[in-house]
Every structure is written in structure tokens, then in C-alpha cells.
Amino acid sequence: MTQTSFSTLPLRQEILSAIAALNYEAMTPVQAQSLPCLLEGRDLLAQAKTGSGKTAAFAISLLNRLDETAYHTQALILCPTRELAEQVAEEIRRLARGIPNVKTLTLCGGRPMGPQLASLKRAPHIVVGTPGRLLKHLNKETLKVDRVETLVLDEADRMLGMGFIDDIDDIDDYLPASRQTLLFSATYPDEIASLSNEFQSDPIDIRVDANESNSQITQKFYSVDRGDRLELVSRLLAAHRPESTLIFCNQKHQCEQLKDDLWGKDLHALALHGDMEQYQRDRTLIQFSNQSSSILVATDVAARGLDIGGLDLVINFDLSADPEVHIHRIGRTGRAGREGLAVSLVLPSEENRLSSIASYQGSSTPLSPTDELPAAAPFKLYPPMVTLSIGGGKRDKLRPGDLLGALTATREIEGNAIGKINVLDKLSYVAIAQTDAKVALRILQEGKIKGRKYQARRLR
Ligand code: AMP
């Protein structure tokens, strides 16, 4: 594969610096194929799924044409789910870090209107959201998009599948006819072609071969009896010692059970499923993505739209009855050029599912002998980080820099021991290296942040 550096593109210096700070050394195939045309303002129809680097492709392009001194909404990004919208906004913010005062806002359903209305008092440069809520704001005239230059439809096939087409049509009525429209979709049903016809003019069409983008993933299948699955999971973890593992279960209660069972074996695991409150799901995703938990046990619905790069291992604790879901699950490992391993546990009663997966993916699904895995030696899987939760957030005008400042002020903790900082509305989370967690907690509990005392605790 030829490696193309971002510096070959006519990009603003601030963006090139942000790319360098993120350690993106070369463009991914989707980026290399799309960015030159995107920067010329062309429309794009791209077959690109999560993990391909598609978000950075459109984020770089829209940031490059942004005028940050003009306070009106210049880019609108439509996403199927809140989780995806938040991931997208986060990637945009990371890439916009060097450009002063760029305001990116997420507007999603299931969130209170009040804070969204307050944020919209000053028009954001970039808006990312789910179609229903965006339309609500457009109808109320709290959001104005008549000067949008770039429209992105992300995961368009899923938006159509979720029945958002009418909302998207209605949103289009508010947008200027002359604009750049980018459409990303993992699959190409006929509806995508009609959507493209309706919304785009002469788009460049890029398709990254699905097999090619999966080529970094090794798949293994083990036949196992129901009662032996936990044992096999711990043998797999002991054999591979992965930093991040995503385990899929078909049922919510199974996620909880497996999480508890893993804790019983001294393995730090978190569960993610639809019975959890939104704040618990946010907290879980933060803990997993900031490396303070090594194992996430999730259902498909909960994991939808979750973009966590660099998963070493995906385990299917249950096989999915739908081969397309299976391919989607295993595609979460081996991202953006990294190698990944996907292991599926197959119950005797699931062997028919295995053959539908084989015919769907067009290659065989041989069962490997379980005795190739070493017997489970007792071991503990400690995540490298710990998450501390602080009882203040954006409402208290806290910013990541304030937390960083408070933690490093006494000079007991070095900046490089501090990981991701997430400041939410009323709460903040800081990832801190295991070895420094105790001291950090003491500093936060005893000291002040911007002159005020806040509660702090360590999440388990
Ligand atoms: P996406 O396909 O947008 O969900 O991106 C998948 C992951 O790849 C994200 O975590 C990005 O931060 C990361 N990524 C995007 N572009 C690059 C690149 N050129 N090099 C390395 N990682 C990248």
C-alpha cells in the first residue's frame, strides 16, 4: 500500500499541526482517495465504514474551508445516533484544536432542550446531530442553516434504516441549494443511489473494497459448551493479554452476568446495554475509551455507533443470528490499519448460524481446537488508567485545562500521567495512570479547582 502523507495536501497549517499531534502519520485509503477532491469542493459518495478514517476525511475538509471569524453555521453533519454524533464532534474538536474559537455543537434527541437552546444563542460554526432533533430546532428557528457550505450525511444507510428519510428531506428544505454534500454509507442499497441523486451533483464515487478493509482481521471460531464459555474467555484473555477487548452478547442480562463473572476472576470489565440510564452509558464509554477498563461487554444495540479505535480483540460470546451483524461486530477490531483478532464462541446449537456466516462472507469458518489455547493460568488484567469523577462540569465553567492545572499544581503529578479529560455538563472525568491515582484523588479532594472545592471519587 502506498503511504501518502497529509503534508501533500493544501491544508491550513493549524490542521496539519493537529494531525501531527494526533500521530496520524499517513492517510487511510478513504482519506487518500477523497481528500484531494473534497478540498476542491466536489460532492462525494463514499462507501466507508467506521474504522476507515472517514470522520477525519470530512472533518479535515470542512475545517479547511471554515471561516472561524464568521459566526454563522457553516457545516451540518447528520448522524443516525447520539453516540456517533458525539464521536464525530469529538474528532472535529481534536482536529480544530489549533484554530481559535471554533464552536462545534451536538444537537441530539433524548437530551434536554434547555442547554441546546442556550448554546444556540450564539450560532455554532459546526453542528452535528440526529435528524429528528435538528429538524425540531429548524422548525423552531433556533437553528439557522441558510449559509451552510457543507452537508454531511454520515452512515446514511443506517439513517434510512431507522426511518429518518422524511426528516432528512425536510432538513434539506432549509439548506441552500448551492453547497457541498458528502454522503457516507457502509452499504449500497438502491435507496442510497436515490438519496445521492436527490441531494448531490456529480459526486465522486469511492468504494473501498469491504474485504480489503477487513484484511487485517484474523477470525477464529471455537466450538464450546454453554457452561465452558467463561473458562474459554479467560483462557483467551490470558493467552492474548489484550489492552482493549469488546465482548458481544445477544442479551442484556447476559452482559451483566458475564461482567460479574469476569470480576469474579479478577478481570476488570464493564457492561453496556440498553437498560442502563444514559449517564451510566456515557460514563461506561468514557471509562472504556480512556483505558480505565480493559473489557467492555455489550449488546449490538448499545455498541451501535460506538467508535473506539484500536481494539485488540473482539469476542462473540454468542454468535449473532444475522451474518451482517457478525461482520459489523468483527469490523470493530483491526481499525485504521492495525491488526485485530476476532474470536467467536460457537455452541453446538449455533452451528447453523456458523454456516450462514460462511456463505455470507464467502469464506469458510473452520473450528479451531480449544486445546491450542494454554490452560488458564491465574492472572489479573489491570487497566493502565483509573477514572476519577469530579462533581463539576461545563455549568461550573470548568474546562479540561482547569482540571489539568489543579492536578499538576502541587508538582506531585506529571502531565504525562494524565490521560483523557472529559468535561460534561455537571460532571467531569479524568483518566489518570494507576500509579498516580491515589495522589490525584487526594489533590482533588483536598484542593480547589478555580477557587472552588468539588467532590471527587474514583470509579471502579
Ligand atoms: P472512523 O472511520 O472515522 O471511525 O475512524 C477510525 C479511527 O481511526 C478513529 O479513532 C480515528 O481517530 C483514527 N484515524 C483516522 N484517520 C487516521 C489516520 N490517518 N491515521 C491513523 N488513525 C486515524
Characterization of the model:
With 460 residues, this protein is α/β, with parallel strands linked by helices. The chain has 3 domains: 6-208, P-loop containing nucleotide triphosphate hydrolases (Rossmann fold, 3-Layer(aba) Sandwich); 212-372, 3-Layer(aba) Sandwich (Rossmann fold), CATH 3.40.50.300; 385-458, RRM (RNA recognition motif) domain (Alpha-Beta Plaits), CATH 3.30.70. It is built from 18 helices and 18 strands. The strands form 3 sheets. The chain has a 7-stranded parallel beta sheet, sandwiched between helices. A 7-stranded parallel beta sheet has the order 10-11-9-12-13-8-14, sandwiched between helices. Strands 16-17-15-18 form a 4-stranded antiparallel beta sheet, with helices on both faces. α5 links the parallel β3 and β4 (126-129). α3 crosses α4 and α6 (131-140) runs parallel beside α8 (165-174). The protein is globular and about 60 Å long. The protein starts with 12 loop residues before the first helix and ends with a strand. The structure holds adenosine monophosphate. Residues 24, 27-28, 31, 50-56, 91, 307, 309, 335-336 line the site of adenosine monophosphate.
